[in-house]
Amino acid sequence: MNIKEASTLTGLPAKTIRYYEEIGLITPRRLANGYRRFAPADLDRLDFLARARALGFTIEDCRALLSLRADPHRASADVKRIAQHHLDGIDDRIAQLEAMRAALATMVAACPGDAGPQCAILSGIAGAPGDPPGETRGSDRR
């Protein structure tokens, strides 16, 4: 099967498939004319990569997971370590997003949203010198 068919079956753009080949995540067979020929095992790897990337794993995590997947003597602890590290990163990003949401919600609630020039959103974004982003003047600082 050619790259267009592989792209259709996996849902990955041909450009992504070429990139995965370039960095060594897949190695489809090459025909004499240089065209790629994808075997079922290549499609399986591409499907795995697509699902792992959809979960937010980095390329290097994907490389490690593919290696572990291919190793019949792997320790599940090694797989879990990679996934746990990624999960911890997701939790950190969620906490950051929740803090951003709270700061923005406070500014939106404080803005009158009328025809006047006073706007707590602009004041909050501007902050006071040295204020961390999202902390508004007059907030509970001691």
How does this model look, in words?
Helix 5 packs across helix 6. Strands 1-2 form a two-stranded antiparallel ribbon. The model is unreliable at 136-142 (pLDDT under 50). It is mainly α. The protein is elongated, with a radius of gyration of 24 Å. The protein contains six helices and two strands, in the order H-H-E-E-H-H-H-H.
Strand content bin: under 5%
Which secondary-structure class do the elements indicate? mainly alpha
What count of helical segments does DSSP give? Answer: 6
CATH architecture of the domain at 3-56: Orthogonal Bundle
Helix coverage percent: 55-70%
pLDDT < 50 stretches = 136-142
The total count of strands amounts to 2
CATH topology of the domain at 3-56: Multidrug-efflux Transporter Regulator, Chain: A, Domain 2
Kindly state the mean pLDDT as a whole number? 92
Following the backbone from N to C, one meets helices and strands in this order, namely HHEEHHHH
Given the C-alpha coordinates, what overall shape results? elongated
Keywords: DNA-binding, Transcription, Transcription regulation
GO molecular function: DNA binding; DNA-binding transcription factor activity
Protein name: Transcriptional regulator
InterPro entries: DNA-bd_dom_put_sf, MerR-type_HTH_dom, MerR_fam, Tscrpt_reg_MerR_DNA-bd
